[in-house]
Amino acid sequence: MRIPLSWLREFAQVPAGSSAEDVMEELVKVGFEEEDVHRPTDTLQGPVVVGQVLSLVKEPQTNGKTINWCQVRVVPEGQEQSLTGDGIDPSGVQGIICGAHNFVEGDKVVVTLPGAVLPGDFRISARKTYGHLSAGMIASVRELGIGDDHDGILVLSRIGLDPEIGSDALELLGLYDQAAEINVTPDRSYAFSLRGVAREYAHATGTSFTDPASLVSAPSTLTGGFDVELHDDAPIYGIPGCDRFVARTVTGVDATRPTPQWMVSRLRLAGIRSISLPVDISNYVMLELGQPNHCYDLDRLTGSIVVRRATAGEKLTTLDGRERTLNTEDLLITDASGAIGIAGVMGGAHTEVSGGTTSILIEAAHFDAVSVARSRRRHKLPSEASKRFERGVDWNLAGIAAQRVVDLLVELAGATAEATGTDVGKAPEPVVIDLPEAFAAARIGIEFTEQQITQALEDIGAQVERTATGYSVTAPSWRHDLETREDLSEEIARLVGYDQIPATLPVAPPGRGLSRTQQQKRRLLQALADSGLTEILAYPFVSSAANATFGTAAGEAPRALKLANPISEEQGWLRTSLLPGLLEVARRNHSRGFRDLALFEAGAVFLPGARLGTAAIPPLGIRPEEEVLDGLYDGVPHQPLHVAAVLTGVDSPAGAGHQPRPWDWADGVDVARLAADILGVELVVTQGAHQAFHPGRTAQLSLRSGEVVGYAGELHPKLLASSDMPARSVAVEFDADQLFAATADVIVAKPLSTFPVATQDVALVVAQEIPADEVLAALREGAGELLEDVALFDVYAGERIGEGLKSLAFGLRFRAPDRTLTADEASAAREGAVALAAERCGAVQR
Prior knowledge:
The protein is α+β, with helices and mostly antiparallel strands and 846 residues long. The protein has 22 helices and 39 strands. The protein folds into 6 domains: 76 residues, Phenylalanyl-tRNA Synthetase, Chain B, domain 1; 131 residues, CATH 2.40.50.140; 198 residues, 3-Layer(bba) Sandwich (Phenylalanyl-tRNA Synthetase, Chain B, domain 3); 69 residues, 2-Layer Sandwich (Phenylalanyl-tRNA Synthetase, Chain B, domain 1); 193 residues, 2-Layer Sandwich (BirA Bifunctional Protein, domain 2), CATH 3.30.930.10; 88 residues, Ferrodoxin-fold anticodon-binding domain (Alpha-Beta Plaits, 2-Layer Sandwich). The protein has a 7-stranded mixed β-sheet with strand order 27-30-31-35-34-33-32, sandwiched between helices. The longest helix is centred in the C-terminal third of the chain and has 19 residues. It is elongated.
């Protein structure tokens, strides 16, 4: 919202010397954000004066162009020029070359003299051109930066001005004014007007405020006016599309009269260009009061006005000249000929006010925010009116705004107002909020006196009554955001002053710290980072194809949650796996030359169940019953914490005497094993299958109980090629919540034996299809308590052991806690291990 300071001063006590920055500094105190400053004199500097064309000689040129050699008086006749400088004629008559042809001798124009600077850092100086010394320029509105018209220079008499020669043109055109631009949040729609901003400025400065609505003498009742009917057979959410429509009529309008320069200047600073006097008046009232309104050419209306929903296939040509096919949800303003406007969005071209209009019907209505918002989005038709209706307009303003438009048309356009009028609709019930006495203090954290509470609420326009338990507060009609006691508490804090709230850190309750799961997560992520992996944070939004590829194992049916309003239609699903985001980050780094990567992420994935969402949302302001909360939680998708990693390139930088090792599938498994070791969980690694991983280099990660927690290995070559990733990239992903749940409540560390270890190796021949982990488990169980560790260190398959067989070599470490083992004890334990492996896996010792 742009706020011209000259306009703001009419309703608020803004000091004469205050700048736009000063105004924004005050408005920040009451919760607004600074946006920008609009000050024409930042890019337009004098001397810029009013001049009169004394003579004009047309001189054709060899290039086919005709120029005007003009003599322009820039000081009153009989006075001497007070300005000095190169190109300033002491006589007060400047010789100027001009290429425009829309003016004649005697016209008063705007002259930029040598030394002036125009927007775009265009500096005016005396220069010789077309055989003359041109000392100045006769300016157009575009050259002055106050409009887009470049068809000719600005003739002051045509905009209703007859100023004195030599007077300051910047002051005449209102260019010394400035505007402060603030960001208005959607919940504070009343601030989309000078009325609302002036009230807030008064709150911020503690000064008085004049409500512009109180300056309008509108009749309390209107009868006998233009026939208007409200019909809404299909209200959205049961709310009528229009619950008030005020119509006023004026005749004898001279629509060709120029808009007063003060109004043009204010509209321009507010970001709205001048169009015609009736349209400018309509926009001016909207900015001043916050109530959009519309002017119809009364002679083009046929029959009564009916506000209704569109019929299927109905069309309307809007003011922008485009024919639009309407939706049955669109709320329309219609007459006997059909649609003449989309309610609250834009009027129709057929009833547009033009230079020949002599009678005007003024509409000021109250439309439902949802209807307006949906129509605006549906037709991609933003407007200043829809911006305000979407956020909420004061129901009580319609009659006042219509009267204000009438008054300005009478004053500026020579119109005659008809005493009759129309006012149909039903007022909404006021919002009454019960505010307990100590509620605001408990919410904000500081004590408020009774005077502070009542004063703050009355300042915003609320009616406050003292009750036995606190206050009964009736919200003002222009504050649609005030619905709960929390809203009132925020208003009290805002007006008393946010700076009054002390900055105090909350004291943690004694005896509490991180929960068990939080401790596990912190320990796990720290261990991964310490091992050399880099943590990243990827977007949780992925494509349906990515979820189908990564989020389900082979043979499982994909199921994912689609976003109702995604940032991108392509990435319109919540992730069921972390790997798509990790791969995208890795791919982006590869495209920038970073090849050796070890990335990991810990985050939630979203696994919808059979039920999603709820049929109804409980009301705000009160805590729902437990069964209602249970129902809400039942509709929320399961969101376990997953941990995933992607490894590409080599494990370390190359160096003198050091050859780095490429990452392989075993490194992915090691990441999962590291996580399991940190948490004290035993992880079972077996051959697995997953469509995102290499068919022969995929490990399935399971708990001893048999639950599958994830997969690790090399990614599928076709997947890597399609993603422009290097071949043999490694990945791992597992469900960290399942590991946390499997962690023992107390992890008991085994004592370290000080006695020497006895090491023995064994090579066992088994069938190719038997996983090495099954053999290793049999060896561990068969070796008994003396076994400290067993590890696979070699796999061999070849002609020497036969087709369909493989040789697995294991290293076994034996140690006793209380003595040095003999060779016979170690051998006996080894034989027991081999015997159980032979029994369970058919293993034969080589």
